[in-house]
Amino acid sequence: MAHVAQLGDAPTLIDLFKAYPGIGRHVLGFMEAAFTLSSELSRGECERVAAYVSALNQCSYCHTIHAHAAKVCGLDPDLLPEFQTTNDATDDRWKAAYGYARQITNRPAEVGEEHVRACRDAGWSNEAITQIAMVATGFNLMNRLVDSLGLTGDPEFLLGAGERLGTISYGGTAAKMGLN
After folding, report:
1. What is the CATH number of the domain that holds 163?
2. Domain-located, residue 15
3. Total structural domains in the chain?
4. For 22-61, how does the pLDDT look when each residue is reduced to its tens digit (9 = 90+)?
5. Is residue 10 situated within a structural domain?
6. 174 and which of 86, 115, 159, 179 could share a cystine (Cβ 3.0–4.6 Å)?
């Protein structure tokens, strides 16, 4: 049940964006820009970072959507749950990237040069490091919006949202909603 009456009994993030189109336009625009900031991370890899951040925040709504979107983008969904439990990626590049995203999520005031340097030393460019930061901070925002307002979605809706984001992304979602 929603925590605010004006959104109805079982609102989704789409309902929030329809009620507040200016917010929806900017949030979806930010996420589209973050996902396309560099060519080093694919859309699926950005979705996997989004799912990881959502798991850290225990936001099952967003985790379900973005784990499925990563799958739609061709990434192995079986890799994600194990990594979330162990915090151990399969290679040094992703260990550094997920460590950075984890620090941004869990202790943002303590993010330091050492976190960025670990990413750089693992082979990420400054642009990709910025992209990882943008995706992680964007999903901290999204997770907090969803959970603080009591937004919900049944499994069919959540998987459908993952399918949509995996195919048309955030810009396409904004266009489909008439928010451009």
Report:
1. 1.20.1290.10
2. no
3. 1
4. 999 999 999 999 999 999 999 999 999 999 999 999 999 9
5. no
6. 179
Rounded CA gap, 148 and 113, in Å?
31
Give the C-alpha separation, 32 to 111, whole Å.
24
121: part of which helix (H) or strand (E)?
Answer: helix 113-121
The answer as to whether 16 is a domain residue is: no
pTM of this prediction exceeds 0.85: yes
Q: Residue 159 sits in which domain range?
A: 22-35+42-176
Selected residue with higher pLDDT from 77 and 13: 13
Cβ proximity of 20 and 32 under 8 Å: no
pLDDT attached to residue 45: 94
Would residue 74 count as lying in a domain?
yes
Q: How far apart are CA 37 and CA 40, in angstroms?
A: 9
